[in-house]
Amino acid sequence: MEEVRLVGDNVEVGVYPIEKARQLAEELELDLVEISPKAVPPVCKIIDYKKFLYEQKKRDKALKSKATKVTVKEIRFGPQTDEHDYEFKKKHAIKFLKDGSKLKAFVFFKGRSIIFKEQGQILLLKLAQELEEYGKVEQLPKLEGKRMIMFIAPKKVK
Fold first, then answer.
1. Residues 122/140, Cβ–Cβ less than 8 Å
2. Are the beta carbons of 46 and 30 closer than 8 angstroms?
3. Count of domains observed in the chain
4. What is the CATH number of the domain that holds 132?
5. What is the distance between the alpha carbons of residues 52 and 97, in angstroms, rounded to a whole number?
6. Angle between helix 117-130 and 83-98 (nearest 10)
7. Can you give the pTM of this predicted structure?
């Protein structure tokens, strides 16, 4: 690497021998930073590297704070949940989906109640069908250990 193309606010843009570029950076008490190593000649910039890193961190943090955070709300059923409890929990599920949260509905099988797997699956599918206008099923009911889990994502509000 004999020559570099210098860019930046405080220097005249052009191609310089690498020693001259280093000398310019030293005179300005700044750092010579390689920006594009694959270019011919490589592109360098004279900047305060610590300040550059700080700005980059700040920019990343701002982007991260703007990203939407997905909350997951859980609703738990038993395999023999009666109609009143089911309706009560369904109201909560509708509220969660309207608020934009994902819903994790699951049937928990205690002890020997695992023999009612079909009942649990029917319950979750019924819930999915009744919540169709508020959200769409992301994962159909799946048995994991003693739980049968289903995920419902909220529908985007137009």
1. no
2. yes
3. 2
4. 3.30.110.10
5. 42
6. 50
7. 0.55
